[in-house]
């Protein structure tokens, strides 16, 4: 049990509601920064040392909050807890799609599951540890970012820098569904953009003079699909695709985007090498250009993650629930920290369902217990 007193799930939900009703699409840096302002004010009020990193490239800024030296029993490497404030939902979702509401054991709202409930739990835990004067074994660093939903292009370097300073990393992304599990491994995620140029020609009068970029793309798509290895954890997905102008014109341009997922670093290197080798001048006269590669390295399960999991499972038992673990296909910022060799435990947020879906919700009655587990880890890891 944490030494910090955790409020009831109803009390936590009332606070969380304000975060959910403050819409924060990744594309609106001002909206994200405004919610960061509220978190900063409350953290500063209880003694946290807060740093704000201004946004760039059209994204919001980042917030780093640290417990003061007097709050920890050790001045060693801190425990890092990292969450994101951005969501995939545009402004107006509350009114048009998924209003905040409570229906039985479910609380609905855009971004409530992915991952405002988890980020709020991290914020709440740090605030209450400081407000109540609880001594932790290690210092705590809270990182709240603004661009995770698009691959963390402006926050990745900061996440990695803070992880290198930490003894462990906790990621309060949503718990798994079904099973309400935390995450000890995630697949690596990569992207490619394919562009093909051919030779335009009249489809009837001089067909033989053309070189169809669309036909070349079709052959390439079958090669990309052949890389799928479900037992080994490798998948590819081609979408969207484009090409051509009119039925009577041999298309001189075509292209696609490719998502790929891999279970290991070695698999990622193999897929990148294989796909990049598909580029170049083709026998049919078309030319294939491919850009991209790995975006998030795999989060491979290791002894550090399993040790953190054992502590989290014991803490959950103290709160009266079982905490299974799982390997998940989707990526998170935990991929970055685990790849650095820092023990990382993910999926410590609230359970629920509907990430990126119109029925997104959490099981709100679990808020207190889930937050208590996170808080206990922040207090006791050493």
Automatic annotation (TrEMBL):
InterPro entries: ArgE/DapE_CS, Bact_exopeptidase_dim_dom, Pept_M20_glutamate_carboxypep, Peptidase_M20, Peptidase_M20_dimer, Peptidase_M20A. Coiled coil: none annotated. Residues 184-282 form the Peptidase M20 dimerisation domain. Gene3D superfamilies: 3.30.70.360, Zn peptidases. SUPFAM superfamilies: Bacterial exopeptidase dimerisation domain (SSF55031), Zn-dependent exopeptidases (SSF53187). Its cofactor is Zn(2+). PANTHER family: ACETYLORNITHINE DEACETYLASE, BLL0789 PROTEIN. This is M20 family metallopeptidase. The lineage of its organism: Bacteria, Pseudomonadati, Pseudomonadota, Alphaproteobacteria, Acetobacterales.
């Amino acid at each position: 049990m944490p030494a910090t007193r955790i409020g009831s799930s109803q009390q936590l939900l009332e606070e969380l509601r304000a975060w959910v009703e403050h819409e924060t699409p990744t594309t609106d840096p001002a909206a994200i920064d405004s919610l960061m302002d509220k978190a900063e004010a409350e953290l500063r009020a209880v003694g946290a040392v807060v740093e704000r990193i201004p946004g760039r490239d059209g994204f919001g800024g980042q917030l780093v909050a640290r417990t003061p030296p007097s709050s920890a029993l050790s001045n060693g490497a801190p425990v890092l807890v990292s969450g994101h404030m951005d969501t995939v939902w545009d402004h107006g979702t509350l009114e048009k799609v998924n209003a905040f509401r409570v229906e039985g054991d479910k609380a609905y709202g855009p971004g409530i599951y992915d991952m405002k409930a988890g980020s709020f739990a991290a914020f709440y835990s740090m605030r209450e540890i400081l407000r109540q004067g609880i001594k932790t074994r290690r210092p705590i660093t809270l990182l709240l970012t603004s661009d995770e939903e698009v691959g963390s292009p402006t926050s990745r370097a900061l996440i990695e820098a803070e992880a290198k300073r930490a003894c462990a990393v906790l990621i309060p992304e949503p718990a798994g569904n079904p099973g309400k599990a935390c995450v000890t491994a995630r697949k690596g995620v990569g992207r490619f953009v394919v562009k093909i140029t051919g030779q335009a020609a009249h489809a009837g009068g001089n067909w033989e003079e053309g070189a169809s970029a669309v036909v070349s793309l079709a052959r390439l798509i079958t090669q990309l699909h052949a890389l799928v290895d479900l037992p080994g954890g490798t998948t590819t997905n081609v979408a969207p695709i484009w090409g051509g102008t009119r039925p009577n014109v041999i298309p001189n341009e075509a292209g696609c985007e490719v998502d790929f997922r891999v279970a290991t670093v070695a698999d990622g290197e193999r897929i990148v090498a294989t796909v990049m080798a598909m580029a170049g001048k083709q026998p049919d006269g078309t030319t294939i250009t491919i850009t991209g590669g790995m975006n998030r390295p795999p989060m491979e399960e290791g002894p550090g993650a399993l040790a953190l999991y054992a502590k989290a499972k014991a803490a959950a038992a103290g709160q009266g629930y079982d905490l299974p673990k799982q390997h998940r296909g989707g990526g998170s910022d935990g991929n970055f920290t685990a790849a650095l060799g820092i023990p990382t435990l993910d999926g410590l947020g609230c359970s629920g369902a509907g990430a990126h879906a119109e029925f997104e919700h959490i099981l709100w009655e679990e808020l207190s217990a889930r937050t208590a587990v996170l808080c206990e880890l922040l207090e006791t890891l050493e």
